Amino acid sequence: LDATNPDPFANTPVSFGNADTGTYDVASGVVTITISNSKFRSIDGGATKYVANTSLGAINVRTYLARPDAGQKSQNNASDITGNGAYTLVGNAFCYVNRPPVASLSASPTQGFAPLTVSFNGSGSSDADGSVVSYTFSFGDGSADVTQSSPTIQHTYNNVGDYFATLTVKDNTGASSSNIASVEIKAEAAPDLIVSVLTASNNQARQGDKVTFTATIKNQGQASAAASKTEFLLDGKTVLGLVDTPALAPGASATVTVNWLTASAKKGQHTIKATA
Question: In the chain, what are the domains?
Answer without folding.
Answer: 21-91 (no CATH), 106-188 (2.60.40.10), 193-275 (2.60.40.10)
